[in-house]
Amino acid sequence: MLTKGDDYPIHQTPEPIAYSGSDRNFYDRYFFNAYSPDGTEFAAIAFGVYPHLNVADAHLSIVQGGVQRCLHASRILNMERMDLVVGPVRIEVLEPLQKLRVVVERAEGLACDLTFEGRAFPIEEPRFVKRIGPRLFMDYTRLTQNVRVSGWLEVDGERRELAPGWVGSRDRSWGIRPVGAPDPQPTPGAGLTGFFWQWTPLNFEDRSVFFHVNADPDGKAWNTRAVILPDGAGPDGGWHADDARMEDVSLRQGTRHAERGTLKIPVQGGEASIGLEPVTTFLMRGIGYGGEWRHGALKGELAVGREDIDLAAVDMGAIENLHIQAISRAVMTAPGEPERQGVGVFEQLILGPYRPYGL
User: Fold this and answer.
1) What's the Cα-to-Cα distance from 173 to each of 141, 309, 330, rounded to whole Å?
2) What is the pLDDT of residue 195?
3) Under CATH, domain 27-180+193-357 is a member of which superfamily?
4) Which of 61, 187, 263, 298 reaches 20 to 30 Å from 228, CA-CA?
């Protein structure tokens, strides 16, 4: 089947763009977040394409006043991957790898028009490859970029222009992850014994800091990297370290969420230290990471729905609420440099045992 993409020189296989190899779990996704300088207001957007499920979906979540308001949309893809629209949500690539715009036309009381402009060239994280028994669980590439954000958000008729100083992160990932409905037949030897994930894209006045780690239940990392990236850096800029670590983590009572942590990054002349203090919690299920509107779920020709979550009332220990982004204050010290104040995200997901935390 020929589609719009076939008229661009972007083919990666001998097949038309409509096909992405043979794995039904192939996906191609955009993610954006934005937050106020004090971390108390937050918005996130996700947009995913699942070529072999023939589904596309999109989500907007806005946190204000302790309530997370979520707009979900899903449609049949019709095998056309170049139409970056799902119901009221559309993405415009204004300048590849530098500036993107997300527009959500008013639906279910929510709307936005946000422009995300990169602070430096995106970083390419190490390729994520993980097998569980004979099954390929993950195989994907991700680029990440911290951004300055402008535009407006609207909740139930109240439109708020983003004040100067709003920042955030965006990423693009593509490859294989579990999406859509799970396979009905389990595979012997392919059970997930545990999954540990931390991700900390942080914004400071003149630089960005990134750290991520995937680890096994004993704490051994199978994918990790830290990057310190000055504003305006190009593809080869910044400081990269493969032996950074998160220390001094204590979990909130009854949850698997950290109430603090200290990121340590080896640098020239010693070690950079970044203390993280969460101030606002964002539930990732609000943008399709689990729940009824999970990524790749078949909802029919077009479905749009709203979900409001009272963050003070939900059980943060329930499995559907384990995956979060904690918007956090950050304080950075490094050898020979003044202390820096910043804000960023401390994303966390711990499934199953994780012995370094006593879980």
Assistant:
1) 6, 27, 26
2) 95
3) AttH-like domain (2.40.370.10)
4) 61
Neighbours of 74 (CB within 10 A): 26
- Helix/strand/coil percentages in the chain, nearest 5: 5, 55, 40
Domains in the chain: boundaries: 27-180+193-357
Per-residue HEC secondary structure of the chain comes to CCCHHHHCCCCCCCCCCCCCCCCCCEEEEEEEEEECCCCCCEEEEEEEEECCCCEEEEEEEEEECCEEEEEEEEEECCCCCCCCEECCEEEEEEECCCEEEEEEEEECCEEEEEEEEECCCCEECCCEEEEECCEEEEEEEEEEEEEEEEEEEEECCEEEECCCCCEEEEEEEEEECCCCCCCCCCCCCCCCCCEEEEECCEEECCEEEEEEEEECCCCCEEEEEEEEEECCCCCCCCEEECCCEEEEEEECCCCCCEEEEEEEEEECCEEEEEEEEEEEEEEHHHHCCCCCCCCCCCCCCEEEEEEEEECCCCCCCCHHHCCEEEEEEEEEECCCCCCEEEEEEEEEEEECCCHHHCC
Structure tokens belonging to residue 93: 């690539």
| Residue whose structure tokens are 């972007």 | 10
For 49, list phi and psi in degrees, rounded to 5. Answer: -125, 135
Nearest CA-CA partner of 214 in 27, 350, 61, 24? 350
Integer Cα distance of 105 and 56 in angstroms: 17
DSSP 319: G
pLDDT digits (tens, 9 = 90+) for 265-292: 999 999 999 999 999 999 999 999 999 9
Nearest to 229 by CA among 203, 208, 204: 208
Lowest mean pLDDT: which of 4-13, 97-106, 223-232, 258-267?
4-13
- Asked whether the beta carbons of 170 and 161 are under 8 A apart, the reply is no
Helix (H, G, I), strand (E, B) or coil at 321: helix
Output the pTM of the full model: 0.96
